[in-house]
Amino acid sequence: MGGEEVGWFDAHGMMSLAHGKVSESAARLVLAERLLKSISEYAKSNTSTDCKVADVVGVPVCNALVAFGKEQYSEVVSLMLPLKYDLVKLGGSWAQRQVFSVTLIHAAIRSNQLPLALALIAELRAMKPKSRTLDKLYKEVKGLCGAMGQGPIRIVELP
Question: Any residues with CB less than 8 A from the CB of 108 and at least 6 apart, and which?
Answer without folding.
Answer: 73, 77, 114, 116, 117, 120
